[in-house]
Amino acid sequence: PFQTGKQGKIFAPCLQHQRRARGSGNSRVAVASACRLIMTSRDRCCWRSVGSLYMQGCPGQDVVCERGAQAAGGISWLLPPDFVSQEILDLRGAGGTQQGGTHGLQSTPFSPAQPLATHWEGADLHPDTAQRWQPSPQGAPFTPGDLVVCDFRRRHYTEFKKIFLLTPLGRLSSNWGFISHRDIEGKLPGQRFRTSTGTEFLLKRPTLEEYVTMMKRGPTISYPKDTAAMLLMMDVNPGDTVLEAGSGSGGLSLFLSRAVGAAGRVYSFDVRADHHAIAKKNFQRWRDAWEHRSREPWPENVTFINKDIASALPDIKPVAFDSVALDMLNPQVALPTILPNLKQGAVCAVYLANITQVIDLLEGIRSCQLSMVCEKIVEVSWKDWLVAPSVRKDGSVSQRLKPENNVESFQEGVTPDEHQESDRDDEESSSEVKPFGQVPYIARPLPWQAGHTGESIHKASCD
Hints:
Helix 7 runs parallel beside helix 8 (251-260) and helix 11 (331-338) packs parallel to helix 12 (355-368). It is extended and about 70 Å long. The protein is α+β, with helices and mostly antiparallel strands and 463 residues long. Mean pLDDT is 74; it is low at 1-15, 17-73 and 96-127. Strand 16, helix 11 and strand 17 (342-352) form a beta-alpha-beta unit. The protein folds into three domains: 7-125, no CATH class; 147-206, Vcp-like ATPase, Chain A, domain 2 (Roll); 220-381 and 456-461, Rossmann fold, CATH 3.40.50.150. It contains 13 helices and 21 strands. Helix content is 28%, strand content 25%. It comes from Leptobrachium leishanense. Residues 145-198 form the TR61B FKBP-like domain. It is an enzyme of class 2 (transferase). It catalyses: an adenosine in mRNA + S-adenosyl-L-methionine = an N(1)-methyladenosine in mRNA + S-adenosyl-L-homocysteine + H(+). One of its GO terms (cellular component) is mitochondrion.
C-alpha cells in the first residue's frame, strides 16, 4: 500500500468512457503510482491527469471520476479525514448534503491490487491481437527453400556433416544411407531422422558460422574465430560504412553485413573475377535462405566491386569509412589509396597468413611514412575439447568410487592433535561440497584441431 509521503498521480477517463462505464456497470478505471499505469484492456480510453496528491491506500484501487478536479477540494475526497484540513472538511460536508451533486469523486469498495498479468483476459484481447501474441516455442518447420545442416556423430566425433538446400524432389545421400527431402518437409529443426540403413542423422538450420565454414568457396576463408576478432578490433556498429578489400568467398562480407545492419553499408573489392562471383553467390544464397525462414529481411547492404583496390580511388572518393578490413596478399600497397577516405581515428584491421607478411606491412607503413600507428598484433587460438563420461572397454559407464581410508599415519613434524584437526576440516569441507552425480568425466583436448589461418593486425589512423 501507499505510505504517507509517497506521491502518486490519479488518471481519469474521458467523459465518453465515463458514461459507457456507468451504463455497463463496469466501474474499473485505473490508478497509476509514479510512472506505472495499471488498467484493463476493456477500459482503455483517453487518459488525462487530474492532479498529484499524497495518499494512503493500495495501488490499483478502483476509482470512478465524476468530474475533472478543478479545485483542491475535489481531490481531497480521496484522502482520509486525518490528513485533510478543517476548511476542506467544511466544504466536503456542505457539498455532500446536495442531492444529485457531482462535486466529488466516488470510490468503489477497496479491492487489493492484482498482478498485471491477471488483467490480460481472453475477452479483453482482440482476436487478431491474441493470435498474433501467441508464442511459437517450437519454431517454424522445414519447407522447400530452407538451408539444412545434417550432422552425424559417433562416439563424440563428427563422421558426416553437410549443408544442402531443401527441394521438393531432392534426396540427401551419404555412405550411411539416404533421406528423401519429402520426409523432412513439415518437420521441426533439431529432430533426428533415420536413413534408409537405419542410421540417425540430426537435421537443423545452419548458423552463420556453420554456413561460412561449409559453403562453396574459391579462396581460403577467414575462419569465424578470426572474423570475430577483426570485428571486435574494428568496433563495427549499426549504421557504419565499412570498406573490405579482398571479398574472397564472402565470409567476412556476411559478418560485416550483419554488424552494420540495414542503416550501414559495406563496400567489398576483389581483383579476381572468379572470387568476385563466388562472394556474390554465397551472399545471395544466405540472404535468400534467411528471408525464407525469418520475417525480418536480411539487409541488402553490401556492394561487391570487381576491381583492384589500389586503382579504385574514383569509386570510393566520395565515401568516408568508419573502419577498413584488409584481407589481401600485399595490404601495404593499398593503404596509401585507402587512407585519405578513412575517418580520423578510425580503425584498419589487416588479416595476414604468416608473420613474414606482418613484417612487410610494418616496413611499408614506415617507409611510406603513413599517418597510422600499429596498436596490436594478435594470434587467435581456438581449441576444441572433449568432455564426456568415462566409459570402460566393454562400453559400460564407470562409477565414481569413494576414497579409501588409509591406515592412520602421521607425517613428520605433525602432532596427533594437528592431524585430527585437519581431518575434521576435511570432513566439514566434504560435507559442504558434494559432487553432483556418481559418474566420473574425462576432459581433454581433441586429438585434432580446427585449421588455423593467420594473424590479425589492429591499426588506427592518426595525424
